[in-house]
Amino acid sequence: MAGHPQPRRPAGPPRILPLLLLLLSAAAIIPRGDGQNLVTEDVTVVEGEVATISCRVKNSDDSVIQLLNPNRQTIYFRDFRPLKDSRFQLVNFSNSELRVSLTNVSISDEGRYFCQLYTDPPQEIYTTITVLVPPRNLVIDIQKETAVEGEEIELNCTAMASRPATNIRWFKGNKELTGKSEVEQWSDMYTVTSQLVLKVGREDDGVPVICLVDHPAVKDLQTQRYLEVMYKPQVRVSQNYPVQGLTREGEPLELTCTAFGKPQPTDMRWLRVDDEMPQHVVVSGSNLLISNLNKTDNGTYRCEASNAVGKSHADYMLFVYDPPTTIPPPTTTTTTTTTIPTTITDSRAGEEGAIRSVDHAVVGGVVAVVVFAMLCLLIILGRYFARHKGTYFTHEAKGADDAADADTAIINAEGGQNNSEEKKEYFI
């Protein structure tokens, strides 16, 4: 009724939405501080995995902590989640930490997330979420499935839709090779194609060529293709008989030709270089046989093999030597049979007799030298005595030659004898 005061509404609980709007508006005008009391770390996560954001307070004073997304929308206010995104889950809440997980991360989740602390003045710090995307597909395209030795082939390896761009490495077996890469960007994704030009040889047949991805979001991602290389035959000639030794006149000779190639050689033949093949030579498949060698067989023998790629050959140079010299047989059989066992049985006795004969010869030689030396000494002494004796007689007769008569000669002779005795005594 008019004039009566209207009844007052009972006081109810405060509305949450206006309070959140007030806080959000306050957060929007909070100046960016240095976050001196807040700690957080940047997060790098692979697409589809879980990212964990942590806002930590170094010195807690029971101030309010909240987490905002890149659009400045509140994800968590204390332990309350206003944002209706069930991928965000509270991991831990206390006065010193607010930790939130984000599951099934996608590229759209990448950006800066803000930690705010309502102090006086307010503090804020941000963490960055970086999302990695591994290559969606890895494919090697080869220019030719089958190549011929000496050719250059082109291989291309493509890594599609990765973030960041992929680094592609090439390997042939265990050896790393260098390719040329091109990068194409589609929106936030990158497609990389690497080209490798390779000159192949017969040693590359069956060797894997590996394309390996070097990317932070993936490990050991690679693909490979095996090379198939065609090559002409490789031919080799080997001597079966004689196994060792010279090829002599009158003896046999056997040669074998082996050939390997891809495809396997089907045509193989023997020929003689610069001459006709002798009529007595027998060729059977890959073998060549000469049963009785002679000097007219000298020359170069060639084995040729061919396949779809080409033809190759190997040569064998034959030189026939003279037959070995033989010792004529003994005249009688009896002498032969008795000599052989005697020689084998008495080999040591013959050696000892030979040694004794050598010792006797040495002794005899020494005795002969001593006797010869003694004879030479006697001859020298004889000549010496003979010369001094002639001088004695010459002086003894010298007085008689100079005397005028016989008496004088006798006197001179006596004097000469006295002198001779003196000389004789001196000589003795």
C-alpha termini separation: 200 Å
| 3D shape | elongated
Strand arrangement within the widest β-sheet reads: 2-9-8-4-5
Measured by DSSP, the beta-strand proportion falls in: 35-45%
Structural class: alpha+beta
Overall number of strands: 25
Return the string of H and E elements: HEEEEEEEEEEEEEEEEEEEEEEEEEHHHH
- Quaternary structure of the protein: single chain
Low-confidence stretches: 1-34, 331-358, 390-398, 416-428
Q: Helix count, per DSSP?
A: 5
Radius of gyration: 61 Å
Helix content: 10-25%
Task: Give an account of the 3D structure.
This protein is an alpha+beta fold and 428 residues long. The chain has helices at 16-29, 333-345, 347-396, 398-402, 406-427, and strands spanning 38-39, 43-46, 51-57, 65-68, 74-77, 88-93, 97-102, 111-117, 123-132, 137-142, 147-148, 152-162, 167-172, 175-177, 180-186, 189-199, 208-214, 222-226, 229-241, 253-262, 267-272, 282-284, 287-290, 299-306, 311-318. The relative contact order is 0.07. Mean pLDDT is 80; it is low at 1-34, 331-358, 390-398 and 416-428.
Protein traits:
disordered C terminus; 25 strands; alpha+beta; 5-stranded mixed beta sheet; 428 residues
